Amino acid sequence: MAPVDLVMTTIGVVVKINGVLEKFRRNNDECGMIYGLVDTVGRDLMLLRDAPIMEDATVRPVMERLKCTLERTAAEVIKCQTSRALVRFFRTDDVAAKLDQLRQDISEKMLGLVLATSVSTNTLVQGIGRRMDQNFELMLQEMHKIIYAALPALLLPLQSKLELLEQRTADHTTEDARNKNRRETDKTGGLIKYSWSALEASLASNEEIGGGHISTVYKGELNKIPVAIKKFGNVNLPARERFVDELRLVSKLQHGNVIEILGHCYEYSESLVQEGNDIRVDRNGHLGFVSRYMPNQSLVRIIKLGNQPIDWPSLFRLIQGIAKGVHYLHEQRVVHLDLKPKTILLDHDMTPKINDFGTARELGPSGDNITLDVENIPGTK
Fold first, then answer.
1. Rounded to the nearest 10 degrees, what angle do helices 95-128 and 29-46 cross at?
2. Under a CB-based contact definition with an 8 Å cutoff, are residues 296 and 346 in contact?
3. Which region is the signal sequence (predicted)?
4. To which CATH superfamily is domain 177-362 assigned?
């Protein structure tokens, strides 16, 4: 059986199983959970339909076992006439655990093949002492593109994926509040414009969660949504210019591995104050960014907790996420210039987000030369 036929046949079995589960899932929570598990397996398999690596001898046997397990499951599910019988079958035979294990077996073998191919190719290129032919490199990238797209979904255990689904569902419940906030607040260039009084009222007891020599980051809550509020300590002309440059840059960026800026605060005023025979200029204002709160802080915390090893799937997702974020920035002709553990934040499911674009530069269409002060190189402090 051809690789595509094998995958499509297996997906067909998943559809058959869920056709039966559909009758019960709305009336029984456990049936709904089982439906979600099986449906997730089917969605992951859809990612593999056109993957050339499915022809490999180490992957096909596991795929065959998955198909057989699903076929046996389908035969038993069809016999079940009640939701109670259905749940009893899945509990007794531990079907969910078997499907999850087979699914991860496939992903681990695929990952090994991708890494082996990459190492083999690099060794060959170094051995002959010349640059890799561009066409060959593009062909190799195209061959692996499907696999790299599928791996993050396959490596994440089913139960974790369901928890993420529940989190996304919970996030949708706050959408009305978010929309209400957007209707009531001015917007500039797609970003919400906040007054400092509104941000100050949202702070959670002035809880500091980060910062540096030019800013302090606080945890706050806007319309029941946890946020991080970055307040800049200075409002002089250079600080305001840097703020506008950074705002102009981040407002253009939209990627799953780049921090999402929700809004900003830009308030500034000057007044003349007379003190005796002297008159001075009194400058007042507030500069700040509002972004989504990242509950797992930054990579610095992960590194400091070195006694708690990260499993390989999670580590792979971290590496891949950072690489995707940097690749996206370079596609936008943006050079970060300060990428380090402190500027990589982690959301609730450990997805990395590149943050802090204060020193970033956007290159022109023909490319620019970036000159750095050797005594003040970004990323060294």
1. 20
2. yes
3. none
4. Transferase(Phosphotransferase) domain 1 (1.10.510.10)
